[in-house]
Amino acid sequence: MRADAARKREQVVAAAVGELADLAKAARKGEPTRLSLDQVAARAGVGIATLYRHFPTREALLQAVYQQELTRLCDEAPEQAAKGPADAGLLAWMGSYLDFIDSKRAMGDSLRTLVASGAITQSETRTRVATAISYFLTAGETSGVFRPGIPPDDVVAAMVGAAVAASPDEQHEQARRLLVLIINGLRLTP
Fold it and tell me: What domains appear along the chain, each with residue ranges and CATH number?
């Protein structure tokens, strides 16, 4: 891919990330959350034809967004865990993961289509997130902040459970409070 084409592709993905974040905020206010490809193209500063040249379907764009954002989030974990303290770092990372989940809710049916087609798998996502969390658990265990032997997948289940179980009326705020409870449960001395 030529450098200018790659740059335009990146602009489109970045614009879609921004649009999805805006839609997540709108959803918390009860507003509609349908991603407009015309708005993505305008935000990216490209024509709609350029968007479709790189992403022939809405699902292709959303798959690229999902993969890029998951990779970015998981790639940040080792450095964030190394900065310490592990409990504060994990709580901040988990908050970023909640934001990731929020923005993906705006994908709606398109995300369900990607999962159904196998383009995005829950098992791969869960494995990647568990690997990211393991950096924090290792750092926390080493520093004496977290109890030893906590399976990363248990933390993933608790974190996702917090996001799903939170009351629709105050989903974002309640989920963040539940994350604090999870962190407290991981600590050696709560």
Answer: 3-186 (1.10.357.10)
